[in-house]
Structures are given as structure tokens and as C-alpha cells.
Amino acid sequence: MSLRIVRLGSPRAPGEGLRIGTVRRPPRGVPKSEFASGDWYDVWYPNLAPSVETMKAAQASETPAQWAAFARKFKAEMAQPDASRSLDLLAALSHQSAFALGCYCEDETRCHRSLLRALLVDRGADIASDAG
What we know:
Blueprint: E1 3-7, E2 18-21, E3 43-44, H1 52-60, H2 64-78, H3 81-93, E4 99-103, H4 112-122
Parallel strand pairs: 1-4, 2-3, 2-4
Helix pairs in contact: 1-2, 3-4
């Protein structure tokens, strides 16, 4: 059992389990009835998405310094009690269940899911080595 960090909309890995969308908004132009069958997500959980203001900062970042500023803001949001408890829960569940967290971004290194990965590793999550 383990947690995978995935790009939403990508094909599911065998045994991936429940897919959780940690995004601010549902996928555009996709009927809600097709979210799971289209490999978007089974459960929408915007609680672990950047706030709208922080998300805009990420989208506008062009330099390493701007990305670092986004990362600081996002990590501060994830340190808030509700988000922190969610991360603790997911880290604990990763040792007993197979599931995935994801976002739409093509490049994980320029996506909040890379930061979620690090925050979950810091909490001792069991993250699948083939996740990407």
C-alpha cells in the first residue's frame, strides 16, 4: 500500500486506488459524471490546493525567486491546522491504503503537487517509488 503523486487526467497505474484531486477547480468541459472514468479524480479535495491568490502567484512565476515565493506561501497555507491535519491523515493512510493525489499541471516540478510530495514525505508517508 502506498500513495502516488499523479497528473490528473493521466492513465491510472495498476492498483492505484482512489484518486484525489487536490485542485482548486474541477476540470473544464468535463461532465461531473466523467471525472472518475476519465482518470481525473474520484474525490475532489480542494483543501490541499493553493488558495486562488497563491495559485495565481504560481501561474505567474517565471523566475526561481518567484517560484520560491509561491512555495513559501503554499507551505504556509499547508501549515494551517485544517490542511496540516489533512496531510497527517493522508500520510498515515498511505501505510494502509493505496490512493493517489494529483493536479493538472504537466510538469510536477512547477506544480504544487511537488510541494505536497515533500510535505507528505516529511510526515513519513509511504510514497510509491514509481510515482511521478
